[in-house]
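Researcher: Structure for this, please.
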Amino acid sequence: MELDLKPLIVQSDKTLLLEVDNPVFEDARDIVNKFAELEKSPEYLHTYRITPLSLWNAAASRLTAEEIIDALYKYSKYPVPQNINAEITRQISRYGKLKLQRDEQGNLIIYSKDPNYIKEIFRSKKIQPFIEGKKDDNSLFIQNDFRGHIKQALIKLGFPVEDIAGYDPGNEYKFNLREKTVSGHDFIIRDYQGNAIDAFYANGSLEGGSGVVVLPCGAGKTIVGIGAMQKVGTQTLILVTNTLSIRQWRDEILDKTNVPIEDIGEYSGDKKEIKPITIATYNILTHRKKKGGEFTHFHLFGSNNWGLILYDEVHLLPAPVFRMTSELQAKRRLGLTATLVREDGLEEDVFSLIGPKKIDVPWKELEKKSWIAQAHCIEIRVPMRSMMRGMYSIADDREKFRFSSENPEKLRIIGVLLHNHKNDQVLIIGQYLNQLQKVSERFKLPLITGKTPLNERSHLYHLFRNKKINALVVSKVANFSIDLPDANIAIQLSGTFGSRQEEAQRLGRILRPKSEGNQAIFYSVITNESSEERFSHNRQLFLTEQGYEYLIYSYDQFKEKFGSYIDVIRARKKLEREMSAQTQK
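Model: Predicted structure, C-alpha cell format:
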C-alpha cells in the first residue's frame, strides 16, 4: 500500500491515530476496533487506545498477535514502535497462560505450563484465600466455591484466566425451533446470528459455554439467546431489565419455538413462577426488605438445576448480581448486549464472570445487508436565553447539566421536527420527567414513564406499532428492550451525562428493519456552549465507533438545511420501495 494511502499513526504510548478522510479508513477502522478502544472522535482524526483488556478480548476471539501486528504495519504511515509490538505479544500471550481446569480426580486447579506464573500467584496475598494448596510446580488446588473469585482477583493482577473447568449439565430440557413462526412467516436464523450461537456453544466443548455476544439493538439478540438455549438443551434462567422485557422474551420464545406456554415462568414483582424456562428481572433479584439486608430473591439462582443462565443487556448487570454470578461459574453463562461499555468501569468483571467477548458484529456491516435500518445521526445545538444563562453561570456542575438539559428552547425544535415528520413514527426520549411532561402537554402526545402502569404502557406501544398514534414521549424506561419495529425517528432531548451505553440503547430503538424503506434518523437536541455539549462528545464516541457520520448544526443552520436534507432521505426511501416492487415482479 502506498504511504499516502496509509491512514494510521501508531504511537509509543499505545494510542492509535486514524485519519478519517482516507480511502481505506473503513477497512482500517474495522480491524482496529477488534483490538483497541475508541477514546476520541473529532471530525478528522480518531484516537484509539490499546489496553490489556482490549487485547485479551481479541485473544479470546482467536485473534493472534501476528495478525494484529501485521494490521498495524499494513496501515501505519510510520514505523510501528518496538514497544507496541512487545506489548501486543505479551498481553495476547497472557490469555490462556493460566488455565482453570479439572485434574484427573476432578479437583479444581489453576494450571500453567510456566511454573514461574504459579510461583508468582502462589505468593500473592490477594490470591492465597482461594488456594487450598500446591499440587505440583505447574498447578495449584483451588476451592470449588471460589472459581469466580479467583478469576476476578487474577485479572486485577494482569492474569486473564482461561476457564475450561467445565459445567454442571443442569436439568435437561429439549425443544425445537419452528420453521414458520406462529404468525406464518418463515423463520431462519441469519448467518451472523448462527455464527454467534456457534461461537458461544463451541460444539459443547469446554472452550465454549460462557461469554458475551455483542450485536446492535434490532439485530436479533433474543434469537441468539433462543438458539443458544436450544443448543444447550437444558432448563434456563433468563435475566432481563424489566417486566415488559419478560413478556417480550416469552412472546419470542412462543413465536419461534415449540415450547408450550405453561413451561415459561415469570419471576417479577407481579408473579413468582419457577418453570423449566424462567424469566426474571434484575430489579427483583436485587430487592431487599431493608438497606444492608439479605437479598430476598437470590434463592432463585439455586431453586432449580439450571444448565444455562442468560443475561440480557449484560452491560447493565447490577453489582449484587455480579457477586452471585461469581458463585455460579459451574453454570453455562451467556451475556447479550449492544455495547460492552460500562459507565462503572466493570468491563473486567464481565470478562471474568460472564466470559470473554465471543463475537462483535459491526453495526455498519449489518446495515449494508439491510438487517438493521440505515441510520443518520444529527445533533442540533440550541441557544440559551440570557436570563437562564445568568442562572447557569452561578450553578454548580450538576445544576449546570440539568439547566442545559431542560433548556426550554428545545421545545421550539421539537415543534419543527414533529411538523416535518408528521408521516413518520417518532419517539421523543428524555431523562427529566418535568421536561417530558411539558412536551407531552404542549404537543398533546402520550407520555410513558416508569410510573405508567404496565397495561397502559403495553396498550400505548400496541397503538404505536399499529400506527394509530405516530409519536410517543418516553422516559429512560424506553432505553431497554422495547420492540417498536416501525419507529424510524428518535429525538433525544436529554440523557445521563455522557453515557455511551445509553446512546447505544436509544439509537437501537429505531434500528429494526422497516416495512417501508429502511431509513432512520436519530436527533440529539443539546444546549450550545454548555456542559451538555461537553458530555455529548463522549456519547458521540459510540456512534463514531460504529461508523456513523454525526452531523452537527446550530438551530438556525438546521432550519435552513432541514428541507433539502429530509428530501434526500425521502428520495432514498422512494427509490428503495420502487426497487423492491420491481424485484417482487
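Researcher: Any notable elements?
Model: The chain has a mean pLDDT of 86. The longest helix spans residues 555-584.
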